[in-house]
Design brief:
Helix content is about 45%, strand content about 15%. It is an alpha/beta fold. It is flat and about 80 Å long.
Length: about 425
């Protein structure tokens, strides 16, 4: 074997050792694909989409009277809360069940003037079966039930994001509002609600102004001096939801019902943190045993010394590297020249963007000429501009984009875009 071949063996050996460590170290770990990252744990230490690490962090930083996470079970947390004064409890669990003693303890805590927000996908209903008769008492006491309509499907959720399919949530109390959230997150509902209870949030359709569904998403139940708030669909109280622009406003509205006092979130991890983490890997086993740890360090030192003494310094001619051509600049100049030569198209694109912003922020269609007077009136109230001025800007923009007998120059294009921007800035 010549010198050059012996020198090439050294990095090959180092690469083999590194790859072996990585392979054996990774063999004991749980391999995550896309669907594995979307498992609902509701864990305080889970930063995956359906964990609650970021949710707890954001709530603790934003709620006015404080927010903290408590790992204590529900009975112990109720006893501890009694000694701290008036508080609100947030309990997120996949399935809510309580026996006679637990139900009475929870309701007695509420009657003294406290609040409890129960978020679950299923509340065991009281029926003739022995198990439900023992653990479905809370459902009977509250005179409602939470039923799961179907499980979460990652593939369906992923497809709804790609095609922008949404479900609608309506808020029934003042100020009334609605939110369009990605389809696939809503798979349970509060049902069989007593007429004395207040269905605060419910499901609806995007093209109506009233709630059409008899299945509530959030229901408020008065109990003595306090209140029990029952909400379905636990996936709306996760890291993904609190970071979503379409869901976080609903979370803030729901949390405002209990935010008038300190909030304590109780632990109920549906998947244990031990199951979601990896088992002991070979490398961790080596490092946890002192003799094997010393042997591993000695082997690494010997490998390093072998590499140092076996390596040879070789001088090579450094080639002259030509400065790379900036292709991005040329591409940007080409695109810019294309658009600048078509002023009418630039104004048309800006007008489409302007109309879409009005639909999103004010729910008005400025392109609908039949309802344009009402739309202009709402836009004038929002921006403080006169209806005549707004009508002039919109009419002149439409003329510029539809009149093909005359092509606007660059100056006219910039002036018209500035007029539209002036309106957008005041919305």
């Amino acid at each position: 074997m010549n010198k050059s071949s012996s020198i090439m063996v050294i990095p090959a050996l180092i690469l083999m050792v590194v790859l072996s460590v990585l392979i054996f170290d990774g063999s004991g770990k749980r391999s995550y694909d896309d669907s594995d990252k979307w498992i609902a744990t509701y864990s305080h230490n889970d930063d995956m989409p359906f964990g609650m690490m970021l949710f707890d962090s954001i709530m603790s930083a934003t709620l006015p009277h404080g927010y903290r996470y408590s790992p204590s079970p529900l009975p112990e947390a109720l006893e501890a809360a009694d000694s701290t004064g008036s508080v609100s409890l947030l309990y997120v669990t996949n399935s809510m069940s309580a026996d006679e003693e637990g139900s009475e303890m929870l309701l007695d805590f509420v009657r003294r003037g406290n609040k409890v927000l129960l978020v679950c996908n299923e509340m065991l209903h009281f029926d003739d079966t022995a198990y439900a008769a023992e653990y479905g008492i809370l459902s009977r006491r509250l005179d409602l039930m939470v039923e799961e309509l179907g499980g979460f499907s990652f593939n369906q959720f992923k497809e709804s994001l790609s095609v922008n399919h949404t479900d609608t949530i309506w808020w029934n109390e003042e100020p009334a509002d609605c939110w369009h959230i990605p389809q696939g997150l809503l798979h349970s509902a509060v049902r069989h609600i007593n007429t004395d209870h207040l269905a605060t949030a419910a499901f609806g359709t995007a093209d109506t102004t009233v709630m059409e569904s008899s299945e509530a998403l959030l229901c408020r139940v008065k109990c003595g001096k306090g209140e029990v708030i029952v909400m379905s669909n636990t996936l709306l109280f996760t890291n993904y939801a609190v970071l979503s622009d379409s869901i976080s406003p609903f979370i803030n509205r729901a949390m405002s019902l209990i935010a008038d006092r300190p909030v304590v979130r109780l632990s109920d991890v549906s998947i244990s943190e031990q199951d979601s983490t990896s088992s002991v890997s070979p490398l961790a086993f080596f490092l946890s045993n002192r003799p094997l740890q010393v042997a591993l360090y000695i082997a690494l030192v010997l490998l390093l010394l072998f590499a140092c003494f076996s390596a040879r310094r070789r001088q090579r001619v450094m080639p002259v590297v030509q400065e790379p051509v900036n292709q991005s600049k040329a591409f940007a100049e080409l695109i810019g020249s294309i658009y600048l030569n078509d002023s009418r198209s630039m104004v048309a694109k800006k007008y489409v963007l302007f109309a879409n912003e009005l639909r999103r922020k004010m729910r008005i269609d400025i392109t609908d000429r039949n309802n344009r007077p009402a739309s202009l009136s709402m836009l004038a109230k929002r921006t403080g501009m006169s209806i005549e001025y707004l009508s002039h800007v919109i009419e002149s923009t439409e003329v510029m984009t539809t009149d093909y007998r005359r092509r606007p120059d660059k100056k006219e294009m910039m002036q018209q875009i500035d007029l539209i921007n002036g309106i957008l800035e005041k919305i």
